[in-house]
Amino acid sequence: MGQDNALPITIRGVTKTYGKVFALDAVDLDIHSGEFLTLLGPSGSGKTTLLMVLAGFTRPDSGSVSFGDQEVVRMPPHKRDVGMVFQNYALFPHMNVAANIGFPLKLRGIAKDEIRSQVEDALGVVQLEGYGDRGVEQLSGGQMQRVALARAIVFKPRILLMDEPLSALDKKLRERMQIELRHLHEQLGMTTVYVTHDQREALTMSDRIAVINHGHLMQLDKPRAIYDHPANPFVANFIGESTLLPVEQHNGVASFDGVPLKLSQQDQGIGPLLMLRPERLVFMFEGDDPDFNRFNGTVTEVVYQGESFLVYVRLSGGEEVAVRSISQHRSLESAPDIGDSIVLGLHRDETVLVSEA
Ligand code: ADP
Ligand code: MG
After folding, report:
1. 138-158, pLDDT tens digit by residue?
2. Which of 9, 226, 274, 299 has the smallest C-beta neighbourhood within 10 Å, fewest atoms?
């Protein structure tokens, strides 16, 4: 396997409607050969529809999809050389593990001995050596998902599509499987398109994230760039927490509450909305660090959340923002009380202006 067998995917102007609903609205997307790209968006945003268009189960109303140089929109699913993993495993209950995994090879008319050896290889890849004779119903959720994964990769597809494959698993197992899937991708190198509505999962696993909403591509970038520099309010709110407050712009200088904002030396965007994320704000009980923007406010609520406090602060202009503070021993004593007047600080390098829409 390896990167030689991966293919780039080019999506151009893909639209799919259901009645009056635009499940996909003129989507353009270039997926690089061998990358792990995640489609991230809320329920109903069009993620599954796009994956089904790639798999060939859904024909778009218009637009084109190419794998490498080959246009595939009219190609039936079984000719596309694409592996698929679904949320609900979709294993055959009456077949044992080996028969499930070998099924795609059997469909392709591969000889029995060859099937046996390739199934063994695939079991090894998903760390289920020796499980071939087990019945599917004897497996745990995590093991079933590994079998589904082995079945998706056993015929060495150049493209792997996964639709919320971990969402049925509990949190601990899900987090472990995220890392395992990521390692597996590094090992196999096939172009992978992964669907999730879970922003943390997307940040953990992806080379790049395509954020979609209402069938529109909202932003396409690396996880850090998406988090640090969201392109619009939707992305700023969907990924992480943030409060967006309007700034005044005069002759290219952005001010908040009449005070010019200190920005990083690099361009932090020229949007009209100041992004305040709870974990980026700090309490400035004293000092006057010139690299910090300062905001005066009053504490309205203090919520203890175990590893951190969430402190709600009403700024002098009336807007409410949340501040997250790690609950170490010392800050436990110094956690503010409701009604306290405080000063919040935001480092200039963390001061980001977001575009409107
Ligand atoms: P997601 O996977 O992001 O939750 P989907 O791609 O399943 O979203 O759906 C996108 C939109 O298209 C939704 O509004 C959904 O109701 C609609 N939709 C999807 N499939 C069908 C269908 N077969 N018939 C009618 N509407 C559909
Ligand atoms: Mg879906």
Report:
1. 999 889 999 999 999 999 999
2. 299
